[in-house]
Amino acid sequence: MADYLARKEFDLVINLAMRGGGGGRVSSFVTQGYKTRRMAVDFSVPLVTDVKCAKLLVEALRLIGGSPDLKTHVDCITSRTIVKLPGLIDVHVHVREPGATHKEDWSSCTSAGLAGGVTMLLAMPNTHPPVTDTHTLTLAKECASRGARCDYGLYMGGTDTNYTTDSEDLTQRVAALKLYLNDTYTTLKMDDSTVWFKEERRKLQVEVL
């Protein structure tokens, strides 16, 4: 069986773990069943380990009649019907630029988004420095314009004081307002969120954490 798996001569492996999974004991990781499942993963052979999924697969095969074409050297199989979908919008991403590009930057984040069908993303404001005024918004937009590979928008972070500054002008330049009511990685935690709702002129969409 190991030789067949190594040569990818199996198109599908259905191998169910023992009830209870061996209780997490170290010995449960050296059983023949575990080795089979591990080899299926290592050699990229499709693997089913849940009995309900196995039953659904069998029922699906019965309904379509005959055996579907399986190609174990590719990640997916598509039908002959092509459905055109609009690009997805991810409304909550953390692009750590500026301030923590070792975690993420505009190039890596938007590239990952495009790979998953996302053509627009909206970035949270808890960068270093956080996006709270005209200066920091300009800085963040400069970073985005240099590195972004898809459409984007920026959130502005609400603070206990910046509602009195130039926030009215910023409403036309940001995607939404983010209010942090809990600890974050920056200084954006608010003690009083009501200051942002006292005037009807606030035109921002609001996301609250």
State mean pLDDT (0 to 100 scale). 80
Spell out the helices and strands N to C: HEHEHEHEHEHEE
Question: Tally of extended strands?
Answer: 7
Which CATH class of the largest domain applies here? Alpha Beta
Number of domains: 2
Coarse structural class: alpha/beta
Q: Low-confidence parts, pLDDT < 50 over ≥5 residues? A: none
Portion of residues in helices? 25-40%
Gap between N and C termini: 51 Å
General shape: elongated
* CATH topology title of the largest domain: TIM Barrel
**Order of strands, widest sheet:** 3-4-5-6-7
Oligomer: single chain
Organism: Petrolisthes manimaculis
Domain MGS-like: 1-83
Keywords: Hydrolase, Metal-binding
Protein name: MGS-like domain-containing protein
Question: Overview of this structure, please?
Answer:
This protein is α/β, with parallel strands linked by helices. The chain is built from six helices and seven strands; from the N terminus they run H-E-H-E-H-E-H-E-H-E-H-E-E. The strands form two sheets. Strands 3-4-5-6-7 form a five-stranded parallel beta sheet, with helices on one face. Helix 4 packs across helix 5.
